[in-house]
Design a protein that fits this description.
The protein is built from 14 helices and twelve strands. α5 crosses α7. The chain is elongated. It starts with a helix and ends in a 30-residue tail after the last helix.
Length: about 375
């Protein structure tokens, strides 16, 4: 669809919403056009050459006329879109407001220099050791850890793991370099687990309902081992050193640092980490930014909540998400991230499991199509 045609068609939908008030319709259209150029057109899941206003026209058109004002008002007043530049800004804030502060705290404790004497602490050799013995681990592919490392020169490549899916050779190399730069026998004494967005916290840690077993990426990190055979007393035995034991000191401090989080996610993580078996059970959660609890729509008492209830189809959920009437875990968020839309957001923004008519159900096209981490094979 050509951009000029899309704009005209969109105007044809917006103008009837405002009736005779042409100035209000024109004001809303100009506002949408501005935000499309400033942010929404840069949504990275859009196909090449496709723009926000085209998607908005298709999205609004599928609602009944009586519901279009509600949908449009939601986009204009409630939608929160985080751009790439904003996430990169959060990554900078993470370093200067959280990482640097915690490093100074630790150095102050070791040297017994009062914490307010920042310059004196920063110039001490102990602070240099604390900086060097800080480890940064990416917990997802959206953690911005590559940008984070490039823009803070005090961090070396030997302090960064883009993922915890690494081999023992890499870990041994990191330890060897750390000992060379500091002292023999040194291990990392402060760890920052980096993530982009925590909406419910269940990806990081959760309890399986059917078994009561702890799972999630924090448990996977804790369980990461390097199985190998060794000869002991003339017998071949299997040993499984863990990644954490290889890299971390016994008194290591661990911090989980999502760039963005909800308070619900923070509370969930803090109430579950004690069930872990390693140093991770003492994790402190340090989000860079926390979304206001009042932002979510998790019932049908609001106009947009009622609209979500009205247009929801059972096939929009799958075995991984279950019912997503108000998003995964019923978080009801109005959030879109530039690289993908969280499934914790309202399904009308992201769900693409109903884009074709099926068994009497009408098709439904999302405004910001999401690419799922888990693929569903269900066809119903």
């Amino acid at each position: 669809m050509k951009t000029k045609l899309a704009k005209q068609l969109l105007k044809n939908i917006i103008e009837p919403i405002f009736g005779d008030d042409e100035s209000a319709a024109e004001e809303i259209f100009n506002e949408l056009q501005f935000f499309a150029e400033y942010k929404y057109d840069h949504y990275e899941m859009y196909a090449p050459g496709r723009h926000f206003l085209e998607h908005l026209y298709i999205w609004l058109k599928q609602f009944e006329e009586i519901d279009r004002a509600t949908a449009l008002n939601f986009v204009c007043k409630n939608l929160i879109f985080f751009s790439r530049n904003e996430f990169e800004l959060l990554a900078r804030v993470l370093y200067w407001d959280i990482v640097r502060s915690l490093q100074l705290d630790l150095a102050s404790k070791i040297t017994e220099i009062p914490r307010y004497k920042v310059n004196k602490i920063a110039q001490h050799d102990v602070f240099s050791d604390v900086e060097r013995s800080s480890l940064f681990i990416g917990m997802s592919d959206g953690a911005r850890i590559d940008f984070f490392r490039r823009h803070h020169q005090s961090i070396s490549n030997e302090q960064v793991l883009l993922s915890y899916h690494v081999d023992q050779l890499k870990c041994n190399e990191m330890v060897t370099k750390l000992e060379s730069d500091c002292r023999e026998g040194d291990r990392f004494r402060i760890v920052f687990l980096m993530d982009d967005f925590c909406a419910s916290g269940s990806t990081l840690i959760r309890v399986k309902e059917e078994t009561g077993v702890i799972s999630g990426t924090l448990k996977q990190l804790e369980n990461k081992t390097f199985p190998q055979k060794e000869i002991k007393d003339g017998k071949e035995i299997l040993v499984e050193p863990t990644l954490l034991n290889c890299l971390l000191s016994t008194d290591c401090k661990v911090y989980l640092c999502p760039l963005l989080a909800t308070q619900k996610a923070v509370d969930h993580i803090e109430s579950h980490v004690h069930k872990l078996d390693s140093l991770l059970k003492d994790i402190k959660v340090k989000p860079v930014s926390v979304l206001d609890d009042n932002l979510h729509f998790s019932d049908n008492t609001s106009p947009i909540g009622a609209l979500c209830k009205k247009y929801y189809q059972k096939r929009m959920g799958d075995k991984h998400t279950k019912d997503v009437t108000f998003g995964y875990k019923q978080c009801g968020l109005p959030v879109v991230l530039h690289h993908n839309t969280p499934n914790n957001s309202l399904y009308i923004l992201w769900n693409r499991l109903a884009t074709e008519p099926n068994a009497g159900n009408l098709s439904f096209e999302p405004l910001f199509k999401r690419i799922e981490r888990h693929k569903s094979n269900r066809e119903d």
